[in-house]
Design a protein that fits this description.
six-stranded antiparallel beta sheet, globular
Length: 123
């Protein structure tokens, strides 16, 4: 259930409060190769593509900006089922996080994101 919720990238704004909207840009959704466009609350936006789709274990998507072929961020969600509980590890690879202030901001966003996800799925 948790994997499917996170894997449905159109739900991302429901638990990532920095993301205002997600629009699919391919017919494929919730699978390897799915592409989508994210609009952020701060006015920024990016193109994204799911690059790893391992059902119930791992989802990875890359964020691209300015038409670059190299991602500016790599977003990973790892899932582990232990009895009735699903553990989620969320990582973000971003060169800009070498700047400590940006790293702290990103870390706080991701802590809120995981707390929101927990609240939503435990509902």
């Amino acid at each position: 259930e948790v994997f499917r919720f996170v894997g449905n990238v159109e739900t991302h704004p429901e638990f990532a409060d920095f993301c205002r909207e997600v629009r699919m840009t391919t017919d494929r959704s919730n699978e390897l190769g799915a592409k989508f466009h994210q609009f952020y609350v701060n006015g920024g936006e990016c193109d994204s593509e799911i690059t790893v789709w391992e059902p119930f274990r791992k989802i990875v998507w890359c964020n691209f900006q300015g038409g670059n072929e190299e991602p500016v961020q790599i977003i990973t969600y790892y899932f582990e089922q232990v009895g009735e509980i699903t553990h989620v590890l969320h990582t973000v690879e971003n060169e800009a996080h070498a700047d400590q202030a940006l790293h702290r901001k990103g870390m706080h966003e991701n802590v809120r994101e995981m707390a929101n996800l927990k609240r939503l799925v435990e509902g």
